[in-house]
UniProtKB/TrEMBL annotation:
Classification of source organism: Bacteria, Bacillati, Bacillota, Bacilli, Lactobacillales
Natural source organism: Ligilactobacillus agilis DSM 20509
Protein's name according to its UniProt entry: Teichoic acid translocation ATP-binding protein
Key word Methyltransferase present: no
GO molecular function term, any single one: ATP binding
Transmembrane segments annotated in the record for this chain: 315-336
PROSITE patterns, alphabetized: ABC_TRANSPORTER_1 (PS00211), ABC_TRANSPORTER_2 (PS50893), LYSM (PS51782)
Origin: domain of life: Bacteria
Domain ABC transporter, chain residue ranges per copy: 4-234
Length: 471
């Protein structure tokens, strides 16, 4: 959906002349004739045309300052207008800022923040406290742009103020416009100079004598506008006057009912019938507010949203009912299985009791036989226990003998090692020593050094270790 959409905008004005002989002349002429435009989020649309094209009037209507004769303006966003007409000359620059912020109905904290932002942007210094009536056109343009670009900018209309700026401040404004476009702010920039359309606008509308001549990509529209200007300038003065007179006559003879017929065709495409025509005519000529198609679509959307909770509650009730049924079914099944299990258990117990009574005599006989076999098994176990005791005693004696032999061997080994060490000398291992180098140095073997120091088969020695070597 477009961020801003205008349809069928017309504006009539009284026909004023200084001649007393024009009693039969039309009483009004049409400044705007069936303007349609849509703008997307983050888009800038140019509005170009010669003076008297009614560009400023169209912006005043979009901003809500002037009421259109027919047509609809549809948007959900606030609209800011940067125009010299928005400056109150009786107030100072600071008072103008506070006035606009108050109209936006923002809280005090945010209002102070916005005030400081505008002041820092326009850079007025002491001129901030002077009445706006003392400002130059360039200063008024600065103030108008500061207000429009900083105080809740969603849709910004710029009415021929960019050409009043000095180059440094224009660059500052250009950067701010681009930053706002990047976050979704939309612009309509009206001017007679093509430079601003080329720099900021993706699309451009060429407005001439209150009527749209072309609307599309900026480059294409500007080419057509340039050709038209060159053609007009190539005419002689009488030809130019004749051309202007013809176009102004068309404004007088314009039939607004043709625009209304276009509106009716659109309504019929959306499902409206002849029965709806009185209501549609009232919306077009009298109410002139939001597009009725959009309004009714919003109402349908709200009705759908209001029905959603009800549908959700119906689904919840259905789910709860299904759950209750499942619980009841499960309980019934459980009871049936429990009943079957109880019956089976009772039958089994009955069979067991009868079996016990029938097997009582045989059980007694088996018990006597088991007692006899137990006596015999006890005698056999006693014999085996005696044999095991004898074997255990023999094993204990053998173990003691082996321990004594091992002790004797260890003592002999210890005595032999002590004897060897008595005939050896001690040294301290220094950095770079290995068992091989020490064996060569003390005219012995690696195995001999290992034996003296009880190293086993290890060749690892560390700096600082104390070792025994032969003398």
């Amino acid at each position: 959906m477009a961020k801003l959409e205008i349809k069928y905008i017309t504006k009539s004005a009284p026909m004023l002349t200084d001649s007393k002989d024009n009693k039969g002349a039309p009483v009004k002429f049409w400044e705007l004739r069936g303007i349609r435009m849509d703008i997307s989020a983050g888009e800038a649309v140019g509005l170009i045309g010669m003076n008297t094209a009614s560009k400023s009037l169209l912006l005043q209507i979009i901003a809500g300052n002037v009421k259109q004769t027919t047509g609809f303006i549809t948007t959900k966003h606030p609209i800011n207008l940067a125009s010299l007409s928005e400056i109150d000359n009786s107030l100072s620059g600071l008072e103008n800022i506070r006035k606009v912020i108050k109209q936006k109905e923002v809280d005090e904290l945010k209002g102070n923040h916005l005030t400081n932002a505008v002041i820092n942007f326009i850079d007025f210094g002491q001129w901030l406290y002077q009445p706006a009536s003392s400002y130059s056109l360039g200063m008024k343009a600065r103030l108008a742009l500061g207000l429009a670009l900083f105080i809740e900018p969603k849709v910004v209309l710029i009415d021929e103020v960019l050409g009043l700026l000095d180059r440094p401040f224009f660059n500052k404004v250009a950067q701010k416009i681009q930053d706002l476009k990047d976050v979704g702010c939309s612009f309509i920039i009206a001017d007679t100079k093509q430079l601003y359309m080329e720099q900021f606008c993706e699309r451009t509308m060429w407005l001439q004598f209150g009527q749209v001549q072309d609307f599309g990509p900026t480059k294409e529209v500007l080419e057509q506008f340039t050709f038209a200007q060159e053609w007009f300038n190539s005419l002689s003065l009488p030809e130019q006057n004749e051309y202007l007179a013809d176009k102004q006559f068309e404004q007088v003879q314009f039939d607004v009912n043709k625009v209304y017929e276009e509106f009716k065709v659109e309504q019929f495409k959306h499902g409206y019938t002849r029965k709806d025509e009185p209501r549609m005519r009232k919306a077009f000529f009298v109410e002139r507010g939001l597009d009725p198609v959009v309004v009714e679509q919003d109402q349908k959307d709200k009705q759908v949203q209001s029905k959603q909770p009800k549908a959700s509650s119906n689904f919840t009730a259905w789910a709860l009912g299904a759950l209750v049924i499942l619980i009841l079914a499960g309980g019934t099944t459980y009871w049936w299985h429990a009943h079957q299990s109880t019956s089976t258990s009772q039958v089994a117990k009955s069979k067991q009791s009868s079996s016990k009574s029938s097997k009582l005599t045989s059980s007694q006989l088996a018990a006597s036989r088991k007692a006899a076999s137990s006596v015999k098994a006890a005698e056999e176990a006693s014999k085996q226990k005696a044999s095991a005791s004898q074997a255990q005693a023999a094993a204990k004696k053998s173990s003691e003998d082996a321990a004594k032999a091992a002790s004797s061997a260890a003592a002999a080994s210890s005595s032999s090692l002590a004897a060897k060490r008595a005939n050896a000398q001690t040294i301290e291992v220094v950095d770079g020593d290995t068992l091989e180098s020490l064996a060569e140095k003390y005219a012995t073997t690696v195995s001999e050094i290992q034996s003296l120091n009880d190293l086993g088969s290890s060749n690892t020695i560390k700096t600082g270790d104390t070792l025994y070597v032969p003398k």
